[in-house]
Structure prediction request, 530 residues.
Amino acid sequence: MKTGYLSLILHAHLPYVRHPEHDSFFEENWLFEAITECYIPLIGVLDRLLHDQIDYRLTLSLSPPLLTMLRDELLQQRYLKYLHSRIELAEKEVVRTQKLAEFKPLAEYYLKFYQDTLAIYQDQYQGDIISAFKKHYDTGQLDLITCAATHGFLPLLNISETAVRNQINIGVNTFKSHLGFAPTGIWLPECAYYPGVEKLLAEAELQYFFMDTHGILNAKPTPISGVYAPINCGNGVHAFGRDPDSSKQVWSSHEGYPGDFDYREYYKDIGFDLDLDIIAPYLLDDNTRINTGIKYYRVTGKDVEKQRYDPAVASAKAKQHAADFINKRQQQLAALTQTMDRVPIIVAPYDAELFGHWWFEGPQWLEEVLRLASNINQPLETSACSDYLQHSTPAQFASPAASSWGDQGYYSYWLNDSNSWIYPYLHQAEAELEKLALDLKDLTVTSFQARAANQAARSLLLAQASDWPFIMKAGTTTQYANKRITDQLARFNYLMDCIRKNRINERYLIALETMDNIFPDIDFRDYCPR
Prediction:
């Protein structure tokens, strides 16, 4: 007898990074690494489950910037170049390690890994990763949902309802254009909720979203089922809360699975370990050391010399951890069924890029979890949140609390001393675009004016991405994050000035349209305030 449901949700998102003005660009590697280490391994997992006729349900959120980049011909060509360079490097490593018995099998392992990646990407799916996910959606096993247009942090954009509305609606429309159907759910960027956003979600015909634990537990009135059943926000839009136990087991740097000593060490890469004369052709500008993806060591432990990575041992550990994960969910559900008036659902949302990129064995763990959960004698069953809403008892009405899944649980990671300067500029630009849309509402607009206004809207959306303030707070590639925001705002201001003065430089407009060719169906008129 089934005692409850487990809903696994992966959120796949990367900021929009595309630089046709350069022959190559380092930050485009973010996409290439994610394709190689996360998205294609995930497709491999789904393909094997399909071949073995495993019955499962998994939810994948695909953000509009990621969808756009995955379908971009320039980035597809550059990815193939990247992948061939990794194959070339792995081939050289096989030669270099011929007399290093400890590392030769690993070099051969990476060569096969990259060759298999190329076969899946180029031969099996002709470079169209989205079609691979759509194939598994069509089987009824994989559920696909959307995200906001550029992953804007909605509570901090809420000074303008129009800004939030367009983030949501453009996200839905971009999803439709790439997948061919309307999503039923949305991943709110950073799981950030503010009271009232459910009204805009209902307008977009979205049925549910996800929240961090405390956003549900602090709802009014207090939900009787905690985070183990959704709440109805009062208008038919449902909020699902993150289960803290399953989250900690995977996310925690101290207690989570990815920190196990047998797993691959992310931070020890041959890009930093080998002599420059060997590795230079695969580094940034032949000099600046970067990750190559070839890593020979395991986590091992702190303050000790790193030991060699063994894929077979790590794979066995992933299966062991998957069994532990399922066992703990069974125990949770057994306890919950004693106190709840409905079938409980454990919601476990994660960043997709954790699986494979940061935690190399993550896809193996996920596959084993889904296989174990499919056992007919298993008391739990995997489910999409959309399934649960169709078949469960009507949800309790409650008003969720403002929250996010960031540090300290609210908005501080995206609004602090490192990044607070952003928001006055974003709010001012939003107000100017709304005024322009209002001024032109009843006027005949030339094609040049419409194109320039649409491009200004694109620049504003790209400047609103939550990734840039996050990077500024994290202190990683802060120079690039600052430049992305200032560049987009400069483009916005230039275009607005051109429109107001009716002096539109067609060549420069074409250049901007070429560089930022996201959201082809955008219409600046949607920024007219209601």
The chain has two domains: 28-71+128-264+309-408, 415-527. The longest strand covers residues 4-12.
